[in-house]
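Lab notebook page, bench 4
Experiment: in silico fold of construct C2
Operator: M.H.
Input chain length: 147 residues
Purpose: comparison with the prior construct
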Amino acid sequence: MDNFTILSVIKDYATTQGWHFLSGNNFNQNYEASQNTYNPGDLVLTADFDAIPIFGEGNSISEIRYTGIIALGRKVEDDDLTRSNLDETFWQKYELRLEALMTLLSTAIISIGCENNMTVQDVRFRMELNKFDTNIDFVVTPVTFLQ
């Protein structure tokens, strides 16, 4: 992986999986999400990262620490495919979507790290329900990649 290409790497991963991709802070992600059309069952990967280079001898970059937030969500609707409705409890959302999203996001983070020779640190999953104007349920985690 070339230096400072973390967002391109994550976007490429999402594309190869057939997922939608949103980047930037929550405002930018929400704006872009509202411009897209999502079908029930579509997955959406989001990323917002800072790059912290560490300069070594001769002022060359010896390491880059990418710290940020990555999230994976699934668009759902009130139908037999995605079984979402306004009366769902958190536990129902967890069983129907969020648990599986944690597994998928964990696999994505591991794959992105391994395929790009980066170490993964500081992962902590949390659930964010009805995120953005599109009302997508997400599993969100801060993560650090060391290149």
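Observations: Helices lie at 6-17, 26-35, 90-115. The longest strand covers residues 61-74.
Next step: discuss at group meeting.
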